[in-house]
């Protein structure tokens, strides 16, 4: 009897261990295995998956269940419910397969056969997510970030690799350094996780600066509570109030709209994170550049316009500019009254960037700045960039004749239709001009800026 009781107790202990101790999935180091359950729970709360699907989240996803997820995701992205579908399948009378097919969220074997019970592979579901993004109007074909670092990338079908690499590029699909397993059936839970990450991608995202989160739409009181009193209150290029912070890790500014909410952010802090991008992200992650401008990469989503700026030496992301899409109808103040704003901001960015490398701020010389303003006026009048002045007067001669003593002198010049950040990173991408910004030999700086016909002419002199 005692042996029988022992066997019963042993069985009970095993059963209790099964229910109390979580079953660990095979670890791949991906985000899914850290936050998967949280995202799946969110998908249920958002109505992307049904309660029954949530209970069966470890089961393989079939095509009918995929159509439910995709239709609900479409509604969540667009705010619109799918309309009526005229198509009729012979093997299912459910509305979601017909709607998914009509909206081109999914494709199928034929116009009459859907295959509702067929399993969906991981690469197929990636393709369906991309089709849903396109149908929802969220996909910008001119803005792409790809990741193709999967060990088994060559086994991804030719028709699906664009979707897999695109979604992985934006961390909607986890970036495994091992295998993606494209032909493996995707589970309901994995599909729900990807759908939620897609939804989150097209929602306003906070940026983390020095471990503090803010974002487009953050109220001024929250900004002040996290970062304190600004070092300077200036103006943005759109005329709005701008709070400027000189951080130990770099420059940070936030512009406020009429409701005292953040509408524009720029930082080159060495400690920021936005989406899957931070100040350590390698430029090689952006191998499909969307322009010929190699120091800048542009991203767009439903809420924001973003520029990522690159450091030309270590080839990593160095700065970021985020603007609310609500600002698209704002008019840039591209007139001469804007020149001091550009000059002021560019000077602050240069000095804050030097601090990141342990270099002292440049001392701004009013006399040298006056000469640089004249240089910019001359370039504007001639509509050209030149280091010389009237009658081919060289930089060194010009400064000597005006009583400015120096041992060594050099100059950065630029013409731009953008702002201070673009000019700074253009200079940072040219070895000689970058050397002037980060020199430990120069002490003084003169800053000049003139705007004429929507063109910004800048000239900065560095000397000691």
Explained architecture:
With 464 residues, this protein is α+β, with helices and mostly antiparallel strands. It has 3 domains: 25-201, no CATH class; 207-327, Pathogenesis-related Protein p14a (3-Layer(aba) Sandwich); 336-463, 3-Layer(aba) Sandwich (Pathogenesis-related Protein p14a), CATH 3.40.33.10. 36% of the residues lie in helices and 18% in strands. It has helices spanning 2-20, 32-45, 51-55, 63-78, 95-102, 122-135, 161-169, 188-201, 220-227, 339-356, 366-382, 395-401, 420-428, 431-437, and strands at residues 207-209, 212-214, 232-235, 241-247, 250-256, 262-267, 272-274, 277-278, 296-300, 304-310, 317-324, 363-364, 409-416, 444-452, 455-463. The strands form 3 sheets. The chain has a 7-stranded antiparallel sheet with strand order 3-4-5-6-11-10-9, sandwiched between helices. Strands 2-1-7-8 form a 4-stranded antiparallel sheet, with helices on one face. Strands 12-14-15-13 form a 4-stranded mixed sheet. A hairpin with a 3-residue loop joins β9 (296-300) and β10 (304-310). α4 (63-78) crosses α5 (95-102), α4 (63-78) runs parallel beside α6 and α6 crosses α7 (161-169). The radius of gyration is 28 Å and the shape is elongated. It starts with a helix and ends with a strand.
């Amino acid at each position: 009897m005692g042996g029988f009781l022992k066997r019963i107790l042993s069985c009970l202990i095993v059963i209790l261990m099964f229910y109390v101790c979580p079953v660990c999935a095979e670890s791949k180091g991906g985000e899914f295995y850290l936050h998967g359950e949280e995202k799946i729970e969110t998908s249920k709360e958002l109505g992307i998956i049904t309660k029954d699907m949530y209970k069966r989240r470890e089961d393989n996803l079939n095509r009918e269940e995929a159509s439910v997820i995709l239709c609900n995701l479409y509604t969540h992205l667009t705010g619109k419910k799918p309309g009526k579908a005229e198509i009729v399948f012979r093997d299912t009378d459910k509305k979601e397969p017909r709607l998914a097919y009509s909206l081109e969220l999914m494709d199928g074997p034929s116009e009459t056969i859907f295959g509702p019970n067929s399993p969906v592979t991981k690469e197929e579901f990636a393709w369906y997510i991309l089709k849903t993004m396109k149908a929802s109007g969220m996909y910008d074909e001119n803005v792409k970030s790809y990741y193709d670092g999967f060990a088994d990338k060559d086994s991804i079908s030719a028709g699906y690799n664009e979707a897999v690499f695109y979604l992985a590029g934006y961390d909607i699909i986890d970036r495994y350094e091992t295998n993606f397993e494209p032909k493996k059936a995707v589970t309901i839970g994995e599909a729900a996780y990807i759908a939620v990450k897609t939804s989150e991608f097209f929602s306003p995202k906070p940026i983390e600066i020095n471990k503090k989160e803010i974002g487009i739409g953050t109220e001024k009181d929250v900004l002040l509570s996290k970062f304190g009193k600004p070092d300077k209150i200036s103006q943005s290029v759109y005329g709005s109030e701008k709070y400027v912070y000189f951080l130990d890790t770099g420059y940070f500014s936030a512009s406020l709209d009429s409701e005292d909410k953040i509408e524009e952010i720029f930082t080159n802090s060495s400690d920021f994170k936005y989406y899957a991008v931070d100040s350590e992200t390698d430029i090689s992650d952006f191998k499909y550049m969307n322009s010929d401008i190699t120091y800048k990469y542009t991203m767009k989503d439903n809420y924001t316009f973003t520029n990522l700026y690159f450091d030309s030496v270590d080839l990593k992301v160095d700065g970021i500019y985020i603007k609310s899409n609500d600002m698209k109808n704002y008019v840039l103040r591209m007139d001469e009254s804007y020149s001091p704003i550009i000059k002021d901001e560019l000077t602050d960015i240069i000095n804050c960037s030097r601090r990141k490398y342990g270099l002292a701020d440049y001392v701004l010389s009013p006399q040298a700045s006056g000469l640089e303003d004249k240089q910019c006026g001359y370039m504007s009048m001639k509509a050209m960039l030149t280091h010389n002045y009237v009658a081919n007067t060289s930089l060194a001669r010009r400064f000597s004749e005006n009583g400015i003593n120096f041992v060594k002198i050099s100059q950065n010049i630029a013409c731009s239709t953008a702002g201070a950040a673009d000019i700074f990173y253009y200079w940072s991408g040219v070895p000689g001009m970058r050397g002037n910004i980060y020199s430990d030999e120069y002490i003084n700086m003169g800053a000049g800026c003139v705007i004429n016909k929507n063109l910004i002419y800048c000239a900065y002199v560095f000397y000691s």
